[in-house]
Design brief:
Elements lengths: L2 H19 L10 E2 L9 E3 L1 H9 L3 H11 L7 E7 L3 E6 L1 H14 L13 E5 L11 H19 L3 E8 L4 H17 L14 H14 L2 H4 L3 H22 L6 E4 H6 L2 H11 L3 E4 L2 E4 L10 E4 L8 H13 L4 E7 L6 H12 L5 E6 L2 E5 L2 E3 L11 H7 L2 H10 L6 E4 H6 L5 H21 L17 H11 L1 H10 L4 H20 L7 H24 L9
Helix pairs in contact: 2-3, 4-18, 4-21, 6-7, 6-9, 11-12, 12-13, 15-20, 17-20, 17-21, 18-20, 18-21, 19-20, 20-21
The protein binds one RNA strand of 77 nucleotides through helix 2, strand 10, strand 15, helix 17 and helix 20.
Length: 550
RNA sequence: GUUUCGGUAGCUCAGCUGGAUAGAGCAACGCCCUUCUAAGGCGUCGGCCGGGGGUUCGAAUCCCUCCCGGAAUGCCA
């Protein structure tokens, strides 16, 4: 039995007790949580205080009644105490806690796996940056969040498909082709400038140079527009994929917007919306009545020049995702897209009646500070700090951990000078160091002839407070996964990692693991093996490695 | 104006389905390496939880209101 089951059983027994005492009603919710100081026990409940009003009795009296009725058989409870102003505090039997060590060692990386999914299949779309330039540091936050959330959902027992929507069908690709064309012609001494909607990034110049090297002046003589389009998308996409995979982020599906047109899906979507009266014509454009569904105003889906707006293929795209059978669609978007949520949901609701299946997680923007000044991230200007720079200069682990630490809706200030110079102060090293330290203990133990492959499964010498604190945190891992999954909150994982590393470091400083006492040494090695498993697994959830040496 | 996300220690941020003395890292200041990695441990300093009302036995957390900051408010994507 794991800790979560035990807590459930204790909860159930509280419920039975309340029923017996006649205090239980439909609204009664029993909450068991961990108190602040350890003098208040391992777990506590505030149920007596909650009941005070309905029962019209003092909380302490109710608490006493509950404790007297409570049947603690098979619940591994050492003692129960009542504390002011009415808390009921539970102290667990230590033998139960040490059994957790064996459970973790047996389950290995499967420890903490949950079964929350019940067959649901989530599609998680993130990054989806246009292939018109490099990824910058703002995109890195999105990549980190989407990837970490995906890993957490998988751990929690959901089936997950990670998807990247490639905008290779719209206006921006036209601008890309023209930008490459201009750079290409400049290489032949032509005096022309990038148009105002063009892209100024270095990577555009690189692409033009490569084309010149290979094809010489061929596209001076003939029109290169279509070629530049294909070449630009392909080469930029290749770089995007490489940058992302070096960042530890991979996708299951790279979905091309262009295929929506090729398969007439956009047309079909538009026809459906028009035929079912969800649209009207005004000023020569076709408008979608999204304001009927919670949007602040209606939106154009076909411009007066006959072309589509951004949302039109996007509606078709989301319909396509639904048709592929996902039970939930999660889009992770930047804070500047928050106005987009209602109109997209409205459109999905019109066309499928399933607007609820779409969940949009908004990620607030990263403000980058360098030399005390804000650096504006703009792809058009080409002056962004790229993900590639960060990976090369700082490394993947610090930056992924850094992003994972913050909740999605925090407006982050990222001071580049600090991030680049003071890398040793990044909390990621604190957690990684714990892992490396444990590994080092095992290396030493093996040198001294300990058989670390055959660790004890029963414990008689683990008695210290530090050990129990460590075990208790290990026991909380499944619940941490659950919380992180429910709230789509990777930062709950990094908080946990930090607590676990802290408990370990404290334990390490207090107790010599390898001593002359063989039994004691082996039992402690068993505890540390469990710690190592959980540390590594938790770090992996946020895409951070667990090195054996530092 | 409207929508939305923030305002918690000097700085960067947790805590927000109401609970016990409000936490962490960094910064500052003290201790602790003849012993498994000092990228560590232990301690000190530091808070009108933006302001004001309300609900409650109990509010950083819920409700109302005001103030401050970011973002959005395109027939751009």
């Amino acid at each position: 039995m794991n800790l979560q089951n035990l807590i459930e059983n204790i909860k159930q027994e509280f419920k039975n007790t309340l029923v017996n005492l006649g205090y239980f009603s439909e609204e009664t919710i029993i909450v068991i949580d961990t108190p602040k100081g350890k003098e208040n026990g391992d777990y506590s409940t505030n149920i007596a205080m909650k009941l005070a009003r309905v029962a019209k009795k003092a909380p302490l009296i109710i608490a006493k009644e509950i404790v007297n009725q409570f049947n603690r058989n098979n619940l591994f409870i050492e003692k129960i105490e009542i504390a002011n102003p009415g808390f009921i505090n539970i102290f667990l039997d230590k033998s139960f806690l040490t059994n957790l060590i064996t459970e973790i060692n047996n389950q290995g990386i499967d420890y903490g796996n949950l079964n929350m999914g019940h067959g649901e299949h989530y599609n998680i779309e993130f990054v989806s940056v246009n292939p018109t330039g490099s990824l910058h540091i703002g995109h890195a936050r999105g990549a980190s969040a989407g990837d970490s959330i995906s890993r957490i959902m998988k751990k929690a027992g959901y089936k997950v498909t990670k998807e990247y929507y490639v905008n290779d069908g719209g206006n921006q690709i036209h601008n890309l082709a023209i930008s490459i064309d201009v750079r290409y012609q400049q290489l032949f001494g032509k005096k022309i400038e990038i148009p105002k909607d063009g892209y100024h990034g270095e990577e555009i110049i690189d692409a033009a140079k490569k084309i010149k090297n290979k094809y010489k002046d061929r596209f001076i003589k003939e029109d290169g527009y279509e070629f530049f389009k294909d070449y630009g998308v392909n080469s930029l996409l290749k770089t995007l994929k490489k940058d992302l995979s070096d960042y530890g982020v991979t996708f299951d599906v790279w979905f091309s917007e262009k295929t929506l047109y090729d398969n007439k899906l956009v047309e079909k979507t538009v026809t459906y919306l028009i035929e079912n009266n969800y649209t009207y014509e005004k000023d020569g454009a076709i408008w979608l009545k999204t304001s009927d569904y919670n949007d602040e105003k209606d939106r154009v889906i076909i411009k007066s020049d006959g072309s589509y707006t951004y949302i039109t293929p996007d509606i078709a795209y989301h319909m396509n995702k639904l048709e592929r059978g996902y039970t939930k669609l999660i889009d992770i978007l930047g804070g500047d897209h928050h106005g987009y949520i209602n109109r997209l949901k409205a459109a999905i609701e019109m066309i499928s009646g399933k607007g609820d299946l779409l969940e949009i997680e908004i990620l607030q923007m990263v403000k980058v500070i360098q030399n005390g000044k804000e650096v504006k991230m703009s792809k058009r200007s080409g002056k962004a700090i790229t993900l590639r720079d960060i990976i090369d200069e700082v490394g993947v682990d610090p930056i992924r951990y850094f992003f994972a630490m913050r909740s999605l809706n925090t407006h982050m200030d990222l001071d580049l000078d600090l991030a680049l110079k003071q890398t040793n102060e990044n909390p990621v090293y604190y957690a990684q160091y714990a892992h490396a330290r444990i590994n080092s203990i095992f290396v030493t133990a093996e040198k001294k002839g300990y058989n670390t492959k055959n660790l004890p499964t029963e414990f008689t010498t683990i008695t210290s407070e530090k050990s129990f604190e460590l075990i208790q945190i290990l026991g909380n891992y499944p619940d941490t996964i659950r919380q992180a999954a429910i709230h789509r909150a990777p930062h709950k994982i990094t908080n946990y990692v930090n607590n676990l590393a802290s408990a370990f470091h404290s334990f390490y400083n207090d107790e010599q693991v390898i001593t002359d006492d063989h039994l004691n040494t082996m039992e402690r090695l068993s505890l540390l093996n469990a710690t190592k498993i959980v540390l590594k697994d938790a770090l992996n959830l946020v895409g951070v490695s667990a090195p054996n040496k530092m």
